[in-house]
Amino acid sequence: MILPLLTLALFLGLYPVAGVCQERVVLAGTGDGQEVFEHLAKAYMRAYPERVVELPPTVGSSGGVRCAAAGTCDLARLARPLRDKELRFQLAYAPLARVPVVFASHPGVTVSRLSRAQAVGVLTGGLTNWRALGGPDHRIFVVQRESTEAPHAALAGYLTELAGQALVGKVAYDADEALAAITGNEFTFGFVSLTAARARGLNILWIDGLEPGPDGALRPDYPMMMTHGLAWLPEPSSAARRFLDFALGPEGRAALADLGVLPVVP
């Protein structure tokens, strides 16, 4: 389980606490690309030590929308834009960054590339052994995500061959569960955000030669992306507005630029 960022910030000594009355902003929602929001929150608290940003454990993008609409959090953190059925809440929304979705395995498997056909084969059960991908002679354990979740939508938007096909493997119901399955079993194959894969030292299997170039920069035309953003009530608190001004302005974009994501420029 992801600790609230307040606890993490206290541990890291990112801001003083004694005798200081600090304003607080709570961001509730997705666990996919959690690293994006944590990175942004840490940058904000370094710049403004008297302010606190909390990221409670994930309740999903949909849960974040409901929290923001009910006023039980200041901002919703989303791994996708608002859905049509969520427009009834009349929330404001702004994208922050485009975050790559990648195939990943435990670092004990060192396969670094796979073709489009191989990816489809693994996900649909046509390929069941790592040896078919150039890896060890061992069964592939597949971790899926629900079709309504942002990582699955990013994947399906690129691998259109998956449409109408039954997918194999265990379904993880949030990012934490998917990451735990991959990190806990050497022969597990799944798809997660690039930021999460890098943060946990997972092995990344780049599809169709779409790995970063020699300078490590991600290709701007990388096809499997989630759009991370924030949603809030039309009249946010002054504390929430200050965080939004930072996150959506040049300071926020600069903070995200070195994280391996593509900041959205208004």
Shape: globular
pLDDT averaged over residues: 90
What is the strand content? Answer: 15-25%
- Structural class designation: alpha/beta
State the helical fraction.
25-40%
Q: What sequence of helices (H) and strands (E) makes up the elements?
A: HEHEHEEEHEHEHEHEEHHE
What is the CATH level 1 assignment of the largest domain?
A: Alpha Beta
**Might you state the CATH topology name of the largest domain?**
D-Maltodextrin-Binding Protein, domain 2
- What is the distance, rounded to the nearest whole angstrom, between the alpha carbons of the first and last residues? 33 Å
**Compute the gyration radius: what is it?**
19 Å
Q: What CATH architecture of the largest domain do you see?
A: 3-Layer(aba) Sandwich
**Number of helices in the DSSP assignment:** 9
Biggest pleated sheet: 11 strands, mixed
Key structural traits:
single chain; 266 residues; alpha/beta; D-Maltodextrin-Binding Protein, domain 2; 2 domains; 11-stranded mixed beta sheet; 9 helices; 11 strands; globular; disordered N terminus
In terms of topology, how is this protein built?
Blueprint: H1 5-12, E1 23-29, H2 34-47, E2 51-54, H3 60-70, E3 75-78, E4 92-105, E5 113-114, H4 116-124, E6 141-145, H5 150-158, E7 170-172, H6 175-184, E8 188-193, H7 194-199, E9 203-207, E10 225-232, H8 238-248, H9 250-257, E11 262-263
Parallel strand pairs: 1-2, 1-3, 5-9, 6-7, 6-8
Antiparallel strand pairs: 3-10, 4-8, 4-9, 4-10, 4-11
